Amino acid sequence: MYILALHYTTSAEDAQVQALAQVLGKTAYEVRSRLTIPAGGPAVVGGYASLEQAQTVAGQLRDRGFTVLLLEEDEVDPSQTQFEVRGFSLEGQQLVVESRQGKQRAIQYGDIDLLLRGVRFSTGEETQTVTQKKFSLGRTVMSSGMIRNKKTKATIMTEVKESENFLHVYAGSQPAFVFSENALLYNSLGSAMKPSRAANFLYIVNEMRRLAAHATFDDRCLRKAGQKQLLGPSMEPESHFDIATHLLAKVLRPQPKVINFQPHVF
């Protein structure tokens, strides 16, 4: 799927809302929220099955003065764009990280240009087997009127909602270093270690902000409402979370890359 998003810094005027509605074939009411995010874009405006269709719409939007981002969903594959951190060291002049597989990376704090802070939301299912008692007429008759209950077992599927804090650290051409609250080993904090995961994670966030004070910091993904503003009504944060962070990184890092709409680019 090819995803189109708009990048802007201030809320749009009515004329721009009308122009977007005309291109997308929707009402002004339906598209207004795509152009009025307080923190500005990016804001996803559509997903398309073919590159040709996505380029056509992107060209129409660009002709009307919009700054358009176009990306293929495969571009946000975490296995290609992210480095999942397990162990880490905040000492010295550089950040050293290690994956669960033992791979190591290191970057100078001065090279870090973006810190994305947020919460990853997920929905799953939990299976429970419960024992229920039901009145049995047959057993009651056979027992000469004594009330008898029949035990039965039932499987119940329950929806489970979970959340996990994260911090994405971006530097140069390195994959984003992903600090996930529940995946980290905190022993390297030594005497600074706190009594809970949440406290340890917050300490890491504050230390990274101190050590890379020059880097851009963004936390609009801390709340699901903020993620929905980025992704729009057609994409749920639980299943399209990586698109939200990828688009944010595109527009917040120095000289964000806006794709030219020519077939050979892809």
Word description of this protein:
The chain is α+β, with helices and mostly antiparallel strands and 266 residues long. The protein has three domains: 2-75 and 258-265, 2-Layer Sandwich (Ribosomal Protein L30, Chain: A); 79-123 and 160-222, Heme iron utilization protein-like fold, CATH 3.40.1570; 126-159, no CATH class. Helix content is 29%, strand content 35%. A hairpin with a 4-residue loop joins strand 5 and strand 6 (94-98). The radius of gyration is 25 Å and the shape is flat. Residues 256-266 have low confidence and may be disordered.
Features of this protein?
3-stranded antiparallel beta sheet; disordered C terminus; 3 domains; 8 helices; Heme iron utilization protein-like fold; Ribosomal Protein L30, Chain: A; 5-stranded mixed beta sheet; 266 residues; alpha+beta; single chain
Summary, kept brief:
This protein has 266 residues and is of the alpha+beta class.
